[in-house]
Amino acid sequence: MTTIPTTAPAEVSATVDAYFAMWNEGDPAARAELIAAAWTPEGAYADPLLAAAGPDALSEMVDAVHQQYPGRRFRRTTAIDSHHDFHRFGWELGEGEELVVAGVDVAHTAADGRLTGVVGFFGDPPAED
């Protein structure tokens, strides 16, 4: 049996915390530091509406979300479920009691614990017909 290395839970938690801080950071210089801490240089993000790869594109993507949803913040709503360097967690975007959108992200981490990719899904999985 082959053992597949997995990022330590504490590293994953710190990375996911930095990931959410990136989404909520309005200052581009501070956001660049969070991106460097959370993402590999070639890290990529995709959801049904957005896609970005690399630090500059990730920061531009966050700026676009801030412009579309001023004052709204992202927060994690579940624990982090992990195996084989893949991680999933629930999140929501809103302000106070106002919910704009919620969903689930699936992330992959490199050996150093930083994100190589995140795929975001909005809402619950669809019901089967």
Mind explaining what this structure looks like?
The structure is a single chain. The protein is α+β, with helices and mostly antiparallel strands. The chain has a single domain, classed as Nuclear Transport Factor 2, Chain: A (Roll). It has three helices and seven strands; from the N terminus they run H-H-E-E-H-E-E-E-E-E. Helix 2 packs across helix 3.
SSE topology sketch:
Blueprint lengths: L8 H16 L3 H11 E8 L4 E3 L1 H14 L4 E4 L4 E3 L2 E10 L2 E12 L5 E8 L7
Parallel strand pairs: 1-7
Antiparallel strand pairs: 1-2, 3-5, 4-5, 5-6, 6-7
What shape does the CA trace take?
globular
Strand content: 35-45%
Summing up helix and strand content along with how strands pair, one would put the structural category as alpha+beta
| CATH topology tier name | Nuclear Transport Factor 2, Chain: A
Question: How much helix, percentage-wise, in residues?
Answer: 25-40%
The number of helical elements comes to: 3
Keywords:
Nuclear Transport Factor 2, Chain: A, single chain, 129 residues, 3 helices, 7 strands, seven-stranded mixed β-sheet, alpha+beta
Give a quick rundown of the structure.
Helices cover 32% and strands 37% of the residues. By secondary structure, the chain is an alpha+beta fold. The chain has a single domain (9-122), classed as Nuclear Transport Factor 2, Chain: A, CATH 3.10.450.
